[in-house]
Write a structure and sequence with these properties.
The chain is α/β, with parallel strands linked by helices and 249 residues long. The protein has a domain of 171 residues: Rossmann fold, CATH 3.40.50.880. It is 29% helix and 27% strand. It has 7 helices and 13 strands. The strands form 3 sheets. It has a 9-stranded mixed sheet, sandwiched between helices. Strand 12 and strand 13 form a beta hairpin. Helix 2 crosses helix 3 and helix 3 crosses helix 4. The longest helix is centred in the last third of the chain and has 18 residues. GO terms for molecular function: gamma-glutamyl-gamma-aminobutyrate hydrolase activity. One of its GO terms (cellular component) is cytosol. This is Peptidase C26.
Length: 249
């Protein structure tokens, strides 16, 4: 049996143009996610959102995740405010119900299976909302600057400070500069512990202390040069796969 773990990456369905094929609905995600997984020693596969959501979302997601060794809940549009019982701020982006429904189910079921998970930006927010957490809808109103998202389609860079004693601190050390592109952040996160903060008090990472590997970051490590989060995910996925393959005693 191969020891190369298979990592699912959540994706969009968006219209894309390739040569003569114009505006064709396509399952896609920035290739930087795929590249980082492959460089870390994993096999990347895309998980498209279910466009026709039904009551059996969790059943189908469970069938999917039982075939994977790890998952990345990727970045993207704002989570719908009604999912955490909030009124929408004027800056909130149009929601993507297909991704919300599919990724909330992935967050739930991956927790049940203790499947290794890395949440990135929106993925961190999905994971928090899935356990009853809440979000800050527009960070610049509190912090008074746009360092977390300086301009459209432009990544910012700022330091974050992992919390001593956390898994994240063990991976990244006391301080690391990160590529950032977000205007929302997690406020409450039942079951998770805070794992990193920005100097302005924005929560930048959380992790589940009882899980094999269940970590989420607010920044975009797929756009940086630091491979350690992806290497840690792939290592945890390899351990998960090995444990699943062991015969029952």
């Amino acid at each position: 049996m191969s020891d190369t773990p298979i990592i699912g990456i959540t994706s969009y369905v968006e219209r894309a143009t390739r040569g003569d094929w114009v505006d064709v609905p396509s399952a896609l995600v920035p290739h930087s996610y795929v590249r980082k997984v492959e460089q870390a020693g994993g096999i990347a596969v895309l998980i498209p959102p279910r466009l026709d959501s039904a009551d059996d979302d969790h059943r189908l997601v469970r069938e999917l995740l039982r075939r994977l060794d790890g998952v990345i809940i990727s970045g993207g549009a704002d989570v719908a405010p009604e999912l955490y019982e909030a009124e929408g701020h004027p800056t909130v982006q149009a929601s993507r119900p297909d991704r919300d429904t599919t990724e909330m189910a992935i967050a739930d079921v991956s927790g049940e299976l203790d499947l290794p998970v890395l949440g990135i930006c929106r993925g961190m927010q999905v994971m928090a909302v899935a356990v009853g957490g809440t979000l800050e809808q527009h960070v610049p109103e509190r912090v008074g600057h746009d360092d977390h998202s300086p301009a459209p389609a432009t990544y910012g860079s700022h330091p974050v400070h992992p919390v001593p004693g956390t898994r994240l601190a063990g991976l990244l050390g006391a301080e690391v500069d990160v590529p950032s592109y977000h205007h929302q952040s997690v406020v409450t996160h039942p079951g998770y512990v805070a794992a990193a903060w920005a100097p302005d008090g924005t929560l930048e990472a959380m992790e589940h202390p009882a899980a094999l590997f269940r970590l989420a970051v607010q920044w975009h490590p797929e756009e940086g040069e630091d491979p350690r989060l992806f290497e840690a995910l792939v290592a945890a996925a390899r351990s998960y796969a090995a444990g699943r393959a062991e015969p029952p005693t």
